[in-house]
Specification:
The complex is a heterodimer of chains A (286) and B (835). With 286 residues, chain A is mainly alpha-helical. Chain A is 69% helix and 3% strand. Chain A is built from 14 helices and two strands; from the N terminus they run H-H-E-E-H-H-H-H-H-H-H-H-H-H-H-H. In chain A, strands 1-2 form a two-stranded antiparallel sheet. In chain A, a hairpin with a 2-residue loop joins strand 1 and strand 2. In chain A, helix 7 packs antiparallel against helix 8 and helix 7 packs parallel to helix 9. The radius of gyration of chain A is 27 Å and the shape is elongated. Chain B is α+β, with helices and mostly antiparallel strands and 835 residues long. Chain B is 37% helix and 26% strand. Chain B has 22 helices and 35 strands. In chain B, strands 1, 2, 3, 4, 10 and 11 form a six-stranded mixed beta sheet that branches. Chains A and B meet through helix 2, helix 3, helix 9 and helix 12 of A and strand 19, strand 21, strand 30 and helix 19 of B.
Chain lengths: 286, 835
């Protein structure tokens, strides 16, 4: 599926100080002539409009978008919300304006087209962040989808399904490899609460895969605890927040306690050892 | 504003040159013979080079030193040997000779330095670059390429249509001497747009001539001379019949032309082979035979029309007319067949021979010369007062007003300006001048409107601006620009599918020039000094297909030795890609992690096609399609199997054809087959068959499901709740197996596998048969055979005692002892760029 980022055509009007409310076909044709003359005059591939660079193709597409007067209301609604507009235009890079979205989506004047633009942006963002194992925004996105009832649109479901399964394989793959220091970077997401909150937002259809993920992480922590207890402890702490099948939840809890107590014993031994060394030092000094 | 004004139709069989002046286009005539067309034919007579009609006359006398149809090999590595001077010429060299000759058609002494040259719409980047090269070799400093169907449309709509008639959708059908193009055009609110196009670079009149030679003339020669091997040897370079081949092609072309106006035609030639008596051959061909002969080729062009309509969701009834362009549309059968098959009226009011050149001149008349030439050569922006003015506006328009803009340099303070139409019909009034000005000027209809821009200083004295006449022709269409014929893509890694994919940067039909900056993340770490590399591979073709089915335009490879430090997975690469109007592609990559820049201009002018490589590729594709058919049949996907069988048939035909090719063939068959191979591969990959892990997984799922089905019917101790669970689970089996994502399929597989585990544990008879099955595995299947043997002893005892729980415990442990024999799919190396 090819997603095309939404681009507001209203920057052009803004740049030329044209009131969107009064725009008509003749004015749009005049605007196009002015813009195309700019290309002709500069001889450059792009021209700057409101600090953005546009190619001739982009200008023509934006003008075509303006010609569809039925969509003007949608463009205006988004243009008036800079944070939301920035997200729709750059869904991969911009912050997800969760709060703004929540308030915006429920307004009675929001058009279907507007909703579709936002849902498309959310899907793009979801895919991008999941691919990058970054779960802060996906957690918010899933919440958004749950609330708006868009979650089980085929596309969102496919993205989540594919990425969760990828995670199972990914964690299993790390588990099978010989552990190396740099693996910690690959597994950083396991130490974040966002990851488990994201999994908790899943609805019933995904419970099986969530349980598989839980199983994979349990296996990983058990295997790594003799090698890197600190890391395991950092994972096991937020892991307790994961809502999975009761057997696994119980296992996570008891493992966490075991890891914790092991660490405590180690610390006791450290103090004993230190005390012994100090004592020996004192004795030899005498 | 200085415009290019001159346009050339560089055709496969004929070329023309035209000029736009005062709102009209003039096609120049050859000063010798006063014909508008110059046959694209070059003859070498010792040191003398003869071009055009005279050169064609030498085909019969000295065919080995005469060259035609070289446009069909533009952009190839092919070289033509000229025996009379023992020199090699490239297709670009020969084309440049034709272009130089066309310059001589211009009656004035001063020759243009900028030119618009037309190309088939389906020319790829390499062919475009080779054409530009020909223009440069002919002495043009600036070469702007224009797609032929666009040129033809400009000519047709500017010369033949009034406003009311032209509104709507049109189809341009351009069957020329060597190439075929169709374009979908819309006219709406005085705007002309090229919506989409299709075509084949190796289909034209020349192919019809070859059909006449191969299917009619050669059998006749065989019949009369008994030379059974003539069809094998006729097109062989340095073969015994090479001279005859060129003569026969000429005879076939003459016969074809005559058959457009007569019902039958006589073919006459002398069959002459060294060391043998000459034989005069004479026979007749009638129109019916000819029409039967070309039927398949014409139907092939009609399939393109359907493809174009389907892609754009257009019904035949929506098209106003089919505009016919190109010499081959003069054949009555072509016209009849198009009309019969599409049900759309055909329009042949445009002169099929000159329309492209006329359109090229219209385009040139509105196309600004490159900025440098505008200032230096014309000098119009240089004024005595050191005030410089550069203006820009649309030189042709259907609107009644046009926007004129300009920038001043060294403008004194408090100046004013005024724009006046020379006939007094418009006056902007006196306005304050700033560095940049712009005015909408009113136009008089259907004529050339001349305006004068006057600049005044603060004392109201006129500052002379030289001859700065502004010239706008009302009543003519202009174009925003040309469209990109194919998608331009970047090859990126598709980690989820263990493959790479073509990620679109610019979609087909975007208006040139184009520029885009994208940010990609590295999909793997590249260590400094390692042999690992990051590959930026720019492709031309179709975004929906696997990269291997697209054409490579250029590659930037950044390896471990070229980087300042390790490039960590996830770090950004900023890639800027720019395409000029003449399709020159430049790529700049910035590695943000090391702050290094790599840039390159891709300007490939040649591609080499090896017959043996072509054969190998066709064979590989055949094997791949066959494997795919087996796989889809295993999962009972008969619909897809039918589709694949059709593709296999087409590919097998190409394979058979390629078997007859030789590296020294003098015709273009290998180029045709190469193009057709790409089309077959495109079709194959576009139905989602590039992804073998997907089908491997489907196969695993189907095998597992079949086995569970068997268990369900054979073992009568399966618990009822498991039976119900299974029925519920496989309700969506048919839907689940249709997935194209490897991981979605894996999710389904895991569900099935988990269920199977439950089934084994809860079904005693199944547990026993599974235990019996794995306990007989050979020694090398176990990690620790001694431990396995001990477990098997324990299991056998449990079995004897019929202790299900104990057997289950042994079975689980024994299972853990088995080695993992599932073969891992080898991970692809990929490009290093994430998707």
């Amino acid at each position: 599926m090819l997603y095309l980022n939404y681009q507001s055509p209203l920057y052009i009007l803004d740049d030329f100080e044209i009131d969107v409310k009064t725009i008509n076909f003749e004015e749009i044709v005049r605007l196009r002539k002015k813009l195309l003359a700019e290309f002709n005059l500069s001889g450059e591939t792009t021209i700057a409009i409101k600090n953005k660079q546009y190619t001739k193709d982009e200008v023509i597409k934006q003008i075509d978008a303006l010609k569809n007067l039925d969509d003007l209301e949608t463009h205006i609604l988004l243009f008036r919300n800079p944070e939301l507009l920035n997200f729709c235009e750059n869904p991969k890079k911009a912050h997800n304006p969760a709060k703004v979205l929540k308030a915006f989506f429920d307004k009675p004047e929001i058009t279907e087209k507007c909703k579709q633009i936002i849902v498309d942006a959310e899907l793009q963002a979801l895919k991008y962040h999941l691919n990058n194992l970054d779960f802060l925004w996906p957690h918010e996105i899933i919440k958004f989808f749950n609330r708006t009832g868009y979650l089980y649109a085929d596309e969102a479901s496919n993205i989540i399904d594919a990425n969760l399964l990828y995670l199972v394989d990914y964690i299993d793959e790390i588990n099978e490899d010989n552990y190396a220091e740099q693996d910690q970077a690959r597994m950083r997401f396991l130490k974040t609460l966002d990851f488990y909150f994201f999994l908790n937002e899943m609805q019933e259809d995904f419970f099986d895969i969530r349980d598989s993920i839980a199983g994979s992480i349990i296996n990983l922590t058990v295997r790594l605890q003799p090698v890197d207890l600190d890391f395991v402890k950092n994972v096991s702490r937020p892991l307790r927040q994961l809502e999975c099948e009761p057997v696994n939840m119980q296992l996570i809890k008891s493992n966490h306690q075991a890891f914790h107590s092991k660490k405590s014993i180690d610390i006791h031994w450290f103090w004993y050892a230190l005390g012994f060394l100090l004592l020996r030092g004192c004795l030899s000094a005498i | 504003m200085k415009t290019i004004d001159f346009g050339i139709d560089l055709g496969t069989t004929n070329s023309l040159i035209a000029k736009f002046e005062n709102g009209k286009v003039e096609v120049f005539k050859n000063p010798v013979g006063f014909k508008e067309t110059l046959p694209s034919c070059v003859a070498f007579r010792g040191e003398r080079i003869i071009i055009g009609d005279k050169a064609r006359e030498y085909i019969v006398k000295d065919p080995l030193n005469v060259f035609t149809s070289f446009k069909r090999k533009m952009g190839s590595s092919e070289r033509y040997l000229v025996p009379s001077i023992m020199s090699y010429y490239s297709p670009s060299d020969l084309s440049s000779i034709v272009l130089k000759e066309l310059k001589n058609f211009i009656p004035t002494v001063e020759k243009p330095k900028s030119i618009v040259i037309t190309i088939p719409a389906s020319f790829d980047t390499v062919q475009c670059n080779a054409t530009k090269e020909a223009g440069k070799l002919a002495g043009f400093e600036e070469v702007v390429l224009l797609q032929e169907p666009i040129a033809a449309s400009l000519a047709f709509f500017n010369e033949k249509m009034n406003d009311a008639e032209s509104l709507g959708k049109w189809l341009v059908y351009d069957l020329g001497g060597g190439t075929f193009d169709i374009a979908l055009i819309t006219i709406d609110n005085d705007e002309m747009r090229v919506v989409d196009h299709e075509g084949d670079n190796f289909l034209g009149g020349v192919d019809l001539d070859q059909l006449i030679v191969n299917q009619i003339i050669l059998p006749k020669i065989k019949e009369l001379t008994g030379k059974e091997d003539i069809d094998q040897l006729i097109n062989q370079r340095n073969g015994p019949y090479e001279k005859l081949y060129y003569i026969l092609l000429l005879k076939a072309e003459e016969a074809k032309k005559e058959l457009s106006v007569r019902d039958d035609v006589e073919v006459e030639f002398t069959f002459e082979v060294e060391g043998q008596d000459a034989l005069d051959i004479y026979f007749e061909i009638n129109r019916q035979t000819f029409e039967k002969l070309i039927e398949d080729k014409i139907d092939y062009t009609l399939a393109f029309i359907q493809k174009l309509f389907d892609r754009n969701h257009i019904k035949n009834a929506e098209i106003k007319n089919v505009i016919l362009i190109g010499g081959s549309t003069l054949i009555p059968y072509v016209r009849k067949r198009i009309e019969e098959s599409t049900g759309i009226s055909i329009n042949f009011s445009a002169d099929p021979t000159t329309a492209v050149a006329v359109g090229a001149a219209y385009y040139a008349g509105a196309k600004r010369k490159s900025a440098t030439e505008d200032i230096i050569e014309t000098g119009v922006t240089e004024v005595e007062s050191t005030v410089k003015l550069k203006t820009a506006y649309n030189k042709t328009t259907r609107d009644m007003e046009e926007y004129v803009t300009g920038v001043f340099e060294n403008l004194p303070p408090n100046c004013t300006y005024r724009i006046i139409r020379n006939d007094g019909g418009y006056d902007s009034g006196v306005k304050n001048a700033s560095e940049k000005i712009g005015e909408f000027v009113l136009l008089k209809s259907n004529c050339v409107n001349f305006f004068t821009l006057k600049l005044y200083d603060d004392k109201n004295n006129e500052i002379p601006l030289g001859n700065k006449s502004i010239e706008i022709t009302q009543g003519l269409f202009s174009l925003y620009g040309q469209t990109l014929p194919e998608d331009i893509c970047l090859e990126v890694d598709d980690i989820n599918n263990n493959s790479t994919l073509s990620e679109v940067i610019f979609s087909r039909n975007s208006i040139l020039p184009l520029k885009k900056t994208i940010f990609k993340e590295l999909s793997r770490t590249i260590r400094k000094g390692s042999t690992d590399s990051l590959i930026i591979n720019i492709l031309e073709g179709n975004q929906a297909v696997h990269p291997s089915a697209n054409k490579v335009i250029g590659v930037i490879e950044i390896n471990g030795n070229m980087i300042a430090s390790d490039l960590v997975m996830g770090s950004d690469v900023e890639i800027t890609i720019e395409i000029s109007e003449s399709r020159e592609i430049s790529v700049k990559a910035i590695l943000t992690f090391t702050n290094q820049t790599f840039d390159q201009i891709f300007n490939p002018k040649e591609k080499y096609i090896s017959v043996s490589k072509l054969r190998e590729e066709l064979k590989t594709l055949n094997n791949e399609i066959n494997r795919s058919i087996e796989k889809v049949l295993e999962v009972d996907d008969y619909e897809k199997a039918d589709e694949l069988n059709e593709i296999l048939l087409a590919n097998t035909e190409l394979m058979n054809e390629s078997g007859k090719l030789r590296d020294n063939d003098i015709d273009e068959r290998k180029y045709q087959l190469e193009e057709q191979k790409r089309k077959v591969a495109e079709k194959y990959y576009s139905i989602g068959m590039n992804n073998s892990p997907v089908y491997e997984k489907k196969e695993q799922i189907q095998n597992l499901k079949n086995y569970i089905d068997f268990v369900m019917s054979y073992h009568n101790d399966v618990a009822l709740n498991l039976k119900e669970e299974y029925i519920e689970m496989i309700q969506s089996h048919n839907e689940s197996i249709k997935a194209t994502n490897h991981y979605q399929l894996n999710a389904y597989y895991i569900r099935l596998d988990k269920f199977y585990g439950k089934l084994v544990f809860a079904t005693p008879s199944l547990l026993v048969s599974n235990y019996m099955y794995i306990k007989d595995f050979p020694e090398n299947h176990y990690k620790n055979y001694n431990k396995a043997k001990a477990l098997i002893d324990k299991g056998d005892k449990a079995l004897e005692k019929e202790n299900h729980n104990e057997l289950l415990a042994v079975y689980k442990e024994l299972w853990q002892e088995l080695k993992d024999t599932t073969s891992e799919i080898e991970k692809i190396k990929g490009t290093g760029l994430g998707s």
